[in-house]
Amino acid sequence: MDTRATVDDEVTRISEIIDHCRSMEGPMLPILHKVQEEFGFIPEATKQIIANALNLSRAEVHGVVSFYHDFRARPAGRHVLKLCRAEACQSMGGEPLADRIKARLGIDWHETTPDGAVTLEPVYCLGLCAQAPAAMLDGEVYARLDDDCLPDMLAEVRI
């Protein structure tokens, strides 16, 4: 495969995304969301392209990417498991539950299992405080998590 063609295709697609979003008020976030939607993460080289297009520094774009937890610097696994880290979930046993999940998967926050099956991410509220602790797996929310439901949930992400 010609890597130059792949890079040119990526730059072309990024330029199309920028052109589509440039006229929006505050275009950086929509651009970054569309880039991540397209590529699954924010490629490092994209930061300079966006900065040039918006007349910003690369550091300003990097600051936004690193500030928001939803943006990734590397591709996610086939499944993304987000565990709520908010106070309600923590008060209902979310912290020890998160520790058990991390131990079973053998990864920490913002890491992907070596087989590429799952990426583990913290999220700071899923709006299920009355049903804590909560998680989101590939966009589907799970409430009242406990040790009884862990094996099924973790088996699902290992597929």
From TrEMBL:
PROSITE patterns: COMPLEX1_24K
Signal peptide range in chain numbering: none
Organism: Peteryoungia algae
Alphabetical list of InterPro entries matching this protein: NADP_DH_HndA-like (IPR028431), NuoE-like (IPR002023), NuoE_N (IPR041921), Thioredoxin-like_sf (IPR036249)
Family per similarity comment: Belongs to the complex I 24 kDa subunit family.
UniProt keyword annotations, A-Z: 2Fe-2S, Iron, Iron-sulfur, Metal-binding
NCBIfam families in UniProt: PRK05988.1 (NF004638)
Cofactor(s), by name: [2Fe-2S] cluster
Pfam families: 2Fe-2S_thioredx (PF01257)
Protein name: Formate dehydrogenase subunit gamma
